[in-house]
Amino acid sequence: MTADTIQPAVAPGEDASLLIVDDDKPFLTRLARAMEGRGFAVETAESVEEAVAKAKARPPAYAVVDMRLGDGNGLDVVAAIREKRADSRTVILTGYGNIATAVTAVKLGAIDYLSKPADADDVVAALTRTGSEPIAPPENPMSADRVRWEHIQRVYEMCDRNVSETARRLNMHRRTLQRILAKRAPR
């Protein structure tokens, strides 16, 4: 798709302010450029501290926030945006997707949760989707290993990220759980 065939994502006159928060500088730069090409007025931040300051100074109409940042959790940014602007539409991006953090993100006000790598079209679709539009079923549903991993992550989050308590509730050895938690999510 060329730049002249990209349709603006927001209507003329509509607040198109967008805050993108990610500590991966090349990804941040590419996404910011792509979103500007789709009609958004983009501001970027590379840390929780910087993003919260920008959100408090000028709360954006839209936000794309990475879950794990160098200085903390992207959910803190979502909460700060929501506190200043309840109608803001925020999407969480992460390379470490799991159901528990997705639920937490939605409870804090995020409207969607996308796994990296997400392209600009996916982000625009998530930001501009209305509640009445159905979400297409996944092309590749989760494997059994992934479902198990998601369950472990959910229990881990419910236990306030306490490894010993999570292991006890899952009836599993603590070291086994630690090894599982240290690995990336299965596909």
TrEMBL record:
PROSITE patterns in UniProt: RESPONSE_REGULATORY
Residues annotated as domain Response regulatory: 17-131
Keyword tags: DNA-binding, Phosphoprotein, Transcription, Transcription regulation, Two-component regulatory system
One function term, GO molecular function aspect: DNA binding
Modified residues (4-aspartylphosphate): D66
One GO biological process term: phosphorelay signal transduction system
Known role: Member of the two-component regulatory system ActS/ActR acting in acid tolerance. These data implicate that a two-component sensor may be involved in pH sensing and/or response.
The name this protein goes by in its record: Acid tolerance regulatory protein ActR
Protein's organism: Mesorhizobium australicum
